[in-house]
Amino acid sequence: MISICNKLKDDQPSLPEQVGFDSTGKYSSSSFQSVYHLHQDLSTYSLEDLIAECLHAFRLAKFMELSGRYFVDGTGKPVPVTKEDFLETCKILVCNFVRSAANSFGVPGQKMAAFKLYPTKSLVNHSCCPVMSHSSFGRETFVYAIRPIVSGEELTISYGDYFNTEVKSVRSEKLQRNYRFVCRCQACEENWPTTKCLPAIVLRCEYCNKPHSSVDVQCDDCLPRTRSRNAVAKKAPKRKQNSQVAPALRVLHRVEGKIRTGKPISKEEFRRLCEASEVAFKHSAMPSKSLVGFMGSVEVCADAGLMYTG
Ligand SMILES: [Zn+2]
Ligand SMILES: [Zn+2]
Predict the structure, then answer these.
(1) pLDDT at residue 177 tops 80
(2) What are the structural domains, with CATH classification, of the chain?
(3) Which residues lie at CB < 5 A from ion ligand 1?
(4) Cα 293 vs. chain centroid, distance in angstroms?
(5) Which ligand neighbours the alpha carbon of 226 most closely?
(6) How far, in Å, from the CA of 118 to the mean position of ligand 1?
(7) Fewest C-beta atoms under 10 Å: which of 155, 170, 200, 276?
């Protein structure tokens, strides 16, 4: 076991060329090396967990040896397994277990039986309020935006629960157990509530763009300024903002109603939903039931195939 652990320690990649980049610094998504060098940070494993993985690998390597099908010569005839070959096989197996645990995606329809590693998709980080979701059709896999993406914003997907479906402590425990990291997304840092306690909508101040709880279009900081400058300023932009957000929410409610009752949604409705989502995200802020509703509806439409068929 100690020999396997020492081998693992020696094999930690450190140079860019060892983790999937070519000599010009470009990431190669078509090379097996890129998959082979996906994240496999053994330092996040406790000694007990690492020993368990080594035992698992040892057992599997022994089965491989006994089967007579894996350690063979050029003609397929079994050859005696040297200690060095056996340890090398154990090391590769442990690395694969660790790599798969952190980077793999369940194959739809065979969730518990098969996992896939992708050189590019597996690089995407997690957020409890992600900007993208992902799906697979046949052998193809893809990611797509579920809300407008601000220039420079990190592209993220969720590895498990969204912030609105599970409380932070549960999400955190699952992420640490399955992926061995502490989530620092905005939803976790600010401890956003789950759907039950979310406000229906949080408007953005028309003047400073900050979220605020008032029904006015200005936040409290901007209210005295605009009021003293112009007595009608308080009313005029309110009509303007409502006139944009309200129709967007109507589109959402219509689509949500159809989803709830299992009715099909047309491509035209899906297009309108995406447009309405852009308007809603521009004039209101996270976290709110409405914006979560837009994200969920886009996902349902994508899963129904509306995104891929033009
Ligand atoms: Zn988070
Ligand atoms: Zn303001």
Answers:
(1) yes
(2) 2-108 (no CATH), 124-194 (2.170.270.10), 198-310 (no CATH)
(3) 128, 183, 185, 188
(4) 18
(5) 2
(6) 23
(7) 200
